[in-house]
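Data card: per-record layout.
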Amino acid sequence: MAHWRTPSRIFLVGPMGAGKSTVGRELANLLGLEFIDSDAAIEARTGVSIPWIFDIEGEAGFRAREAAVIDELTGRDGVVVATGGGAVTTPANRDLLGARGVVVYLYTPVSVQLQRTRHDTNRPLLQSDDPEARLQSLLAERDPLYREVADVVVETTGGRARSVARRIVEALQGQPS
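The structure for this 177-residue chain is written out next.
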């Protein structure tokens, strides 16, 4: 059996509430890589919150900022990057993610997303009268995009972040290098 080499760039995609940030930290720790959350990077650069950007610039303004950050982060080596849930809606982001590293789709059913995000006021797209319907709509729109760009798909239900991170490593080890 050939020796497995840790990818130098791992990008996590998936819906809000999938655990991209939590699992990403664990995965980076397991593999000795740096963890970067693209939304946190946007907030650090702008000095304002994601909801503020949505309020002032709208989703299009946010997506433009996100695309610039994705372009930069996907060029770094030795990283696990957790992308925002909607990063895949921009074709250029999908191209960069797919071309520059290994993409892991953290699949999470809507019921689990709802449970994990129900008290989070920092998610502009969930500020609606029916968050469950909104999550279902977003997943219906984005699931094909996540799957299109993903090298591997790992479900995040039924396990702690560390066990999900281990499942990702196992899935990656099964990938051709």
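Known properties of this structure: The beta strands are 9-13, 34-37, 79-82, 102-107, 152-155. The chain has one domain: 9-173.

See the next section for split statistics.
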